[in-house]
Amino acid sequence: MTCRWGVIGPGNIAQTFADALKVLPQGELYAVASRNTERGQAFADKNGASVLHSSYQALVDDPMVDVVYIATPHSHHYPVARQVLAAGKHLLLEKPLTVNASQTCELVALSEQHKCVFQEALWSRFMPCFATVKAWIQQGRIGQLKYITSQIGFKFSGDATHRLLNPALAGGSLLDLGVYSVSISQYLLEENPVQVSAITTPAGAPVDHNTFVTMQYASGAVSQFVSTINAQCSNVMTIHGSKGFIHIPGRFWEGLGCSLFVDDECIEAQSFTHRANGFEYQIEATMQLIAEQESSDKRMSHTDSVGVMDTLDSIRNTLGLKYDNDIETL
């Protein structure tokens, strides 16, 4: 049975999704919803969608749509996701799910009430690379996991109206980029931090530009990361253990390779080639959940998603970072 997808928000991320869906014969891009008709039509034409809806609600109400992918800015995920889940539609929602944990909990409850698949699209957690890294850790290849370090970001050169610099759109580096370090650390450690500390520079900016975070866990492990929209960085992740370490090279979240070192010698290295662009794994997982009538994938469960948002809330509270009230409320 072919799974008919509807896409809400036909921007760059949605194009990445559409490209990945094309390599999966069990799915098709059926409908697109955009408030910009010209943009929506161009996206539909490029990707072979049969239907263009001029409102999100029209797509939600379309009986031919089996499952929805939301790729709007994360500041507006919550109200649109509520529409989808309240209508009983399955949903793959781009990361971060919402701007705070209360909103995420509300969506989880709504999905359970309507018996919908509700999956967070944190693509890295579905990739073979991170399954390999986790297996190495669980096999004891690096001994006891001690700490994780990661950097993620870039020098943003856009103007002040861009969403990354706009507190009304939950801008800044933390939710857009730092979420990868928080979520992948949770995936590898299988726990949420019990304590966080953080600073951001420049102090007093309306959104966080350079954010430095330390997360401490009950196991004794520590994860430290930098997220930035104001500097070039290496974009690497390293997992350090008592006997060795695992290195995931530049743009670590893309999961293209990992290397295992013991006594400073590389004893195993793996490289990975995606069939499309890496989004295909999470799309495939979502369609499998629908077929098996499961609510979320064990690689990124509802409990995991709530835990990640709780951690992001804790970091924001430490930083005193607040977004506009109209996107923070339920």
UniProtKB/TrEMBL annotation:
Keywords on record: Oxidoreductase, Signal
Signal peptide residue numbers: none
Residue span(s) of domain Gfo/Idh/MocA-like oxidoreductase N-terminal: 4-120
InterPro entries: Gfo/Idh/MocA-like_OxRdtase_N, Gfo/Idh/MocA_domain, GFO_IDH_MocA-like_dom, NAD(P)-bd_dom_sf
Domain of life: Bacteria
An example molecular function term from Gene Ontology annotations: oxidoreductase activity
Boundaries of every GFO/IDH/MocA-like oxidoreductase domain copy: 130-246
Descriptive protein name: Predicted dehydrogenase
Family: Belongs to the Gfo/Idh/MocA family.
